[in-house]
Write a structure and sequence with these properties.
By secondary structure, this protein is mostly helical. It is built from 23 helices and no strands.
Length: about 575
């Protein structure tokens, strides 16, 4: 005997109460899943009853018994996921999927149930890092949605209002669905479910290392959320700005600037004023400002790289036509709408060769944003983020200096860089901020060396008068390179550091090379000092070679640098012999 209407009504009430329990966030830390377990017990009791009805057979196609069997297995599987019972969760979700395929293999109406099952299964496999399986399931979900879209497009005119196109969760508690009016939000809810599919696809492609496809699905997710007006404004804006970083990272500044402009327009028009005390809002605005700074850094960096490439004369600072066309593929809001929102365009044109004023305009805008971000990310309350801001400020000066041909001004910019970096080193404890300290030591080693090279290029004919200043720059460069190297030693008595992470091998070898080479540049008229300096250079080079000899599996991480060191080290004995036999200039 099939379930009565009264049983279905009671089951629906029980189901709604169970859903309320799953969304209860008031459980204690000692029993964080208490409400979810209570909901699961109710749903399992319902499923047991449904299974008994199933055994009786003779069921209609859209029988509540069939639909509820699918729905309840889905809901129980979700709770099992949320309570970290992945094995039982997989069992229930897999069963729900199998029932769908058995009873409704080509049925478009069960699309909502089907997509929810596939979304949850993909999420489960993502939690297990089985990304191939998760991707396969999501692609299946996408194919089902596209099939449903074709089905929907074939329903014409007024018939749309009469013909059912989806079966929603609460429809599972009803008899004679084709005779009942479909919920007006049914298709909207389906779109929201498919938006989650798109979001999961973006995440899985990113996990699999396919950033290009991940970006496509990120965009589709954001666009869908915008169309459906189904999003949290701050979260949506930060996600849009984050997506822009991918395009800036591959030099697609037209697309990146459009996404940033849309995010800014939405933040300015839909969020409370900037003086609002909401902590999340303050953090969100500061995060957006930092993303903007990263964008300007990448724009300046790309401009610098362009001028050293063979294509510099061809592009001459202009965006390629191909990129201009691609902006339309990733458009979120039309230009007219952005203008109505009083959102000014964001600079996306590469800096022309030697155009310092153009580069400075970008620098000034980025510096303003960085100072705003530091109002939230202070040293006392957000030390790590504050240090990141200081490092970005240093990079801004470095990039700006590449557009200035005046050596004195370049040196002043570098002086600001090293001052701010050395100042922050005094404020932080390497024990707690080792990764950032290493970055800063290495950057300072390079910066002081570059300052030396700039001074030498200007003062070739004044070497004797500048020797003390030049040697001071080399000394500081070496000190910072050595600090970087020493940070990897477990104790100071170790001749060379133990094995370092692969991504640190190249910087480590460069630091050895930089410190050693600095000794060969020291200006002195004393032959003994010159020979001593070359011996110290050889010592640093030998330590670099010994490190790789001890860790041969990492040789490929710094092959070019190592080859150069070995080649130069072989020449040092001859160099010392030549110096020993020569008369030094006074």
């Amino acid at each position: 005997m099939p379930p009565s209407t009264t049983w279905l009504q009671n089951a629906r009430s029980n189901y709604m109460f169970a859903k309320t329990l799953t969304e209860n966030y008031q459980d204690s830390e000692e029993e964080p899943y208490r409400s979810k377990y209570a909901a699961r017990t109710r749903l399992m009791t319902m499923l047991d009853a449904v299974d008994r009805f199933l055994e009786e057979g003779n069921l209609e196609n859209y029988s509540p018994v069939r639909l509820l069997s699918i729905l309840l297995n889905l809901e129980i599987g979700v709770i099992d996921q949320e309570t970290e019972e992945l094995s039982t969760g997989e069992q229930h979700l897999t069963k729900a999927k199998a029932l769908c395929e058995e009873w409704y293999p080509d049925d478009n109406l069960v699309i909502v149930l089907r997509l929810n099952i596939l979304n949850q299964l993909s999420y489960l496999y993502t939690m297990r890092a089985d990304y191939e399986k998760a991707l396969s399931i999501l692609q299946e979900a996408q194919a089902y949605f596209e099939k449903w879209t074709t089905f929907k497009s074939n329903i014409n005119g007024e018939e749309t209002k009469k013909i059912r196109t989806v079966i929603e969760f609460l429809d599972c508690f009803e008899y004679n669905l084709n005779e009942k009016v479909q919920d007006s939000n049914g298709e909207v809810n389906l779109d929201k479910t498919f938006t989650q599919t798109l979001y999961f696809l973006a995440q899985v492609y990113e996990k699999m290392g396919d950033s290009a496809k991940s970006a496509v699905y990120c965009y589709r997710t954001l666009k869908k959320q915008l169309i459906l007006n189904h999003y949290k404004t701050l979260e949506w804006c930060i996600n849009t700005a984050t997506l822009s970083q991918y395009f800036a990272g591959i030099d697609k500044f037209g697309i990146s600037s459009h996404l940033l402009r849309v995010a800014k327009a939405m933040m300015d028009s839909k969020l409370p004023p900037k003086n609002d005390d909401d902590e999340d809002l303050k953090k969100g605005r500061a995060d957006f400002q930092r993303i903007m700074v990263k964008y300007y850094l990448m724009l300046l960096d790309c401009s610098s790289r362009q001028h050293t490439s063979e294509e510099s004369e061809k592009t001459n600072g202009q965006k390629p036509l191909q990129e201009q066309e691609k902006v339309e593929e990733y458009r979120l809001l039309e230009e007219d709408e952005l203008n109505r929102m009083s959102c000014s365009p964001i600079i996306d044109k590469l800096v022309e060769f030697g155009n310092f004023d153009q580069a400075k305009a970008i620098f000034v805008e980025a510096q303003k944003l960085l100072n705003l971000a530091k109002e939230y990310y202070t040293l006392n309350e957000h030390a790590s983020d504050y240090v990141d801001c200081i490092q970005d400020h240093s990079k801004l000066y470095r990039h700006l200096s590449s557009f200035d041909f005046d050596v004195d001004r370049k040196c002043k910019m570098y002086k600001r860089r090293v001052d701010m970096l050395e100042e922050i080193l005094k404020e932080i404890n390497p024990k707690h901020f080792m990764a950032q300290c290493r970055q800063i030591w290495f950057e300072l080693g390079e910066a002081y060396n570059e300052m030396y090279e700039m001074k030498v290029s200007k003062e070739k004919d004044q070497v004797t008068t500048s020797a003390k200043k030049l040697n001071s720059l080399l000394k500081k460069s070496t000190e910072h390179f050595v600090a970087f190297i020493d940070s990897f030693r477990e104790n100071k008595n170790e001749p060379i550091p133990p094995k370092v992470p692969d991504e640190m091998v190249k910087p480590l070898i460069i630091a050895y090379f930089g410190a050693g080479r600095n000794y060969t540049k020291i200006l002195t008229a004393d032959k003994k000092d010159v020979i001593s300096n070359w011996n110290k250079c050889e010592e640093f080079y030998s330590q670099a070679v010994k490190y790789i000899d001890n860790n041969p599996d990492q040789k490929s991480q710094a092959q070019i640098e190592l080859d150069l060191i070995q080649e130069m080290r072989e020449l040092i004995p001859k160099r010392i012999m030549m110096i020993a036999g020569a008369n030094m200039m006074a």
